[in-house]
Design goal:
Elements (H helix, E strand, L loop, with lengths): L8 E4 L5 E4 L3 E7 L3 E7 L4 E7 L14 H4 L3 H14 L8 E6 L16 H15 L4 E6 L5 E6 L5 E5 L7 E4 L1
Parallel strand pairs: 1-3, 6-7
Antiparallel strand pairs: 2-5, 3-8, 4-5, 4-6, 8-9, 9-10
Helix pairs in contact: 2-3
Length: 175
Amino acid sequence: MLEIECDVCEVYLQPGEVYLARKPTIIRTILGSCVGIAFWSARLSVGALCHALLPKCPPGAGTGLDAAAGYRFVDFSIRGLARQFDQIGAARGEVQVKLFGGADVLATSATSTARPTIGRLNCEVALEVLRQEGLKVMALSLGGTSGRSIQFHTGNGEVRLRWISRPVFEEDTCG
């Protein structure tokens, strides 16, 4: 996990990274088939974002995996952030979760369409693990064929989404 000291932070997450902010911070990342999962507690003024690349940890690797390697996986990232929010005193019911990404940004052949893509698997695993962990998704933008750029403001929980490969005027805000 990254740790940065500053008055007003802006952080860019690379694939496989997580950032938890205890003061207002803008966390940015770009997603294709990866998923970005934002956690926010209004009461505690704490927010976190992960940028996970692959759906699940390899069998048997979950307990022996260090955090730096584990945050590449959707299931590990969600469970790790849920535990961190538990440790700082956030009740699962108060944690707002927003989920983005999981696009099929690479062209697929007609013969490979029967197989699930990494983007689709990332989405499915994220939704299932969030359900298992008792975390409710407040907003989401998943799938499709276009990437997304997101900015998460941990001070107010707002996520700004901008489509990649679409006209600039198409901008969504998930509040």
